[in-house]
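Re: the multi-chain job from yesterday

Posting the exact lines I submitted so nobody has to dig through the queue logs.
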Amino acid sequence: MPLSFYQASAQVFVHALGNLSAILEKGALYAESRKIDPVVMCGLRLTADMLPLSRQVSTACDSAKLAVSRLSGVEAPKHADEEKDFVELQSRIAKTLDYIRSVPEASVEAAAGRKVSLKLGGEPREFEPEAYLTLFALPNFYFHVTTTYAILRANGVELSKRDYLGAILG
Amino acid sequence: MPLSFYQASAQVFVHALGNLSAILEKGALYAESRKIDPVVMCGLRLTADMLPLSRQVSTACDSAKLAVSRLSGVEAPKHADEEKDFVELQSRIAKTLDYIRSVPEASVEAAAGRKVSLKLGGEPREFEPEAYLTLFALPNFYFHVTTTYAILRANGVELSKRDYLGAILG
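And the result, C-alpha cells for all chains:
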C-alpha cells in the first residue's frame, strides 16, 4: 500500500501540532520562571524582518488548516491573527486541531486526481495534489514549526529534538 | 492514486536539497561580499548548544540519505562530517543527490509493508514505513534545512520563503 493522503497530511499535522503545543508549554513555563512577560516572549523574532513567535505559530496553524481544506474541499474556519500570549496561541492550535479532526478521512483521500487551486502572490495557481502537499504544504508547515522552536531555543528555553519530533521517539 | 513512497521521499529530498544548495550559494556570496571567512560563516550557530551551520547541512543530507536507504534497502555511502566551508558543503549535497538519484524508484516503493529498523539513542526500534517517513524522516530533514536558513537569515543573508520552497513558487 502506498501512502494515503490522510496519513501524509491530517495525521502528520495532528501529531506535529501536538508537539508544537508541548513546545509552547515549555516556553510559557520558562517565561513564568524568569518573570518574563509572555507577550514579550511571544513577540520575539530571530531577526527584525522575520515574523515574531506568535505569527510563526499562527502561520504553522494556517498552513496545516489550509492544506487539509484544499485537499479535502471542506471549508476551513477563518482565524484572525491576533494571538499575543501563550494562552491565546494554545487556543489557536486547539481550534486548528478541532477543524482538522472534523474533516472526514474519505474527503481528504478524495484529493487524489483533483487539482489544488490557490493564489500565490495574488496569482491563481493550480497544482497536482501530490506536489502541493509534498513540495509546498509540508515544507511550509515545518518551516514555521522549526522557526518557533528556534526562537525559543535561541532565547534560553530548554528544548531538544525529542520535543520537536514528539512521541515517535518514545 | 494515493501518494507513492518515491514521490514522498526521494523526489522531495532532491527538490529540497536543490533549494538548500541555492540557499548556501547566497550565503557564500554574502560572505564573499563582506569579506567574511567562509569557515567562520559555516561555523555560526543560533545558540551555543545547537549545531553550527556546517553540521545542520550535513545532518540534513544524512536525514535524506538514510531515509532513502532505510526505505529502499539500498546501502548508502558513508560521509564523514568534516565539511568546513561552502565549497565542501556543496560537495556533500552533490554526493547525497548522486546517491538518492542512483536508487531505483521500484526499490523505494518496495518499502510498503516492510518495517524500518533503526537505532535511536542506542536502542533498536521498528517503525511502519509510513510512520517512519512522515513522522520522523521528513520533519527531521526539514528541521535541519530550516535551521540552516535561520542561521543565515539571522546573520544578514537576504533569503525569502521562495528560496526555501524553490521552483514550485515559480
